[in-house]
Amino acid sequence: MAAELKPVYLLSGNDRPKIEEALRRLRARVGESAVEVLSATESSGEDVVAACNAAGLFVVDVRAVVVLEAERWKAADVKAVAEYLADPAPATVLALVGEGIKRDSVLGKACAKTGELLLFDVAKSKLPGWVAQRFAELGANVDRDACRLLVDIVGENVTELDTEITKLATWAGGETIDAAAVEALAAGRAEIAVFDLTDAWGARDAGAALGASEAILERSGGSRSADVTRIVARLASHVQRVREVQAFAAESLSARQAAAQMKKSPYYVQKLFAQAANFSTGELEDALVQLAALELAVKGGSRLAPELELTRTLVATTRARGQGDSGGR
């Protein structure tokens, strides 16, 4: 085996692009014809050991056995591989790929003794920086606000973020990617994408809010009750943020200063400031009360359909000043 290659590599973490790149480098080193790919969902630990020990069937200096979804193995599978690693085949590189496999796990400790752990994790707080780095690696120009907004829209799944980064970098064609481009083009995948709904709610446009909520429900195709519950949770979170920036505005903080405290994109926080100006403090507090009542209603506290309860609350909380009582439900 080439001196620089270890008998085993454990690749784990949420940074799938980094893991894929490490695998590409390994496959290039040993040659595609000398790579065998297995899945832990179909191959036991003993199956993998047998594959590693089958080097005599191949006329190569070194070969690689790649096992995907290694986190799915049971204790017996891990034990078989750990025993193999005590005396690994000299011409085989074993690459174990999984999610959530920790350094101090049984498999992690076994791999560390004879090989190398490649744990690629990106902390939530570091995601905007990771996004900026990925854009730079693709030769794309992006501003800081756009990176934060992309995380807000897409969520914390690094693989999905990378998909959107690649799409935006291709679309930009060398032009700088700003927050407006991200908002227009990025696909919202974090739970349920409710930006259209929250924008309409913040503008006190009941018709647009109802249309956006129906569009979300139609796209989902899942349980209506569960989807309405998720919409309520996201809307309540949004209203709470609007209330938060209203308090910042009362303290004469700018959107950028508030964004720094909230650790959100200034572009996004500026929109919150604009929405906060459309409501009184009492109206925002009342909206939070009504959303809490709505959550109870859609979880079995009402005989009405969840969609109807949602419609009633959206109308009540977006009703313009002077168009009736804005009190409780």
The largest sheet is: 5 strands, parallel
- Mean pLDDT level: 87
Shape: elongated
Q: Which fold does the CATH topology of the largest domain refer to? A: Zinc Finger, Delta Prime, domain 3
Radius of gyration: 26 Å
What would CATH call the class of the largest domain? Mainly Alpha
Number of domains as seen in the coordinates: 3
Q: What is the overall number of helices?
A: 15
Number of strands: 5
**How much helix is in the residues?**
55-70%
> Termini separation (Å)?
72 Å
Strand order of the largest sheet: 2-3-4-1-5
Strand content: 5-15%
Low-confidence stretches: 325-329
Please state the structural category.
Answer: alpha/beta
Element pattern in H and E: EHEHEHEHEHHHHHHHHHHH
Q: How would you name the oligomeric state of the polypeptide chains in this document?
A: single chain
Q: If classified by CATH, what would the architecture of the largest domain be?
A: Up-down Bundle
Notes on the protein architecture:
It is a single chain. The chain is α/β, with parallel strands linked by helices and about 325 residues long. The protein has 3 domains: about 10-120, P-loop containing nucleotide triphosphate hydrolases (Rossmann fold, 3-Layer(aba) Sandwich), CATH 3.40.50; about 125-185, Helicase, Ruva Protein, domain 3 (Orthogonal Bundle); about 195-320, Zinc Finger, Delta Prime, domain 3. The protein contains 15 helices and 5 strands. It has helices at about 15-30, 45-50, 75-85, 105-115, 125-135, 145-155, 160-170, 180-185, 195-200, 205-220, 225-250, 255-260, 265-275, 280-300, 305-320, and strands at about 10, 35-40, 65-70, 90-100, 115-120. A 5-stranded parallel sheet has the order 2-3-4-1-5, sandwiched between helices. The longest helix is centred in the C-terminal third of the chain and has 27 residues, at about 225-250. The chain is elongated, with a radius of gyration of 26 Å.
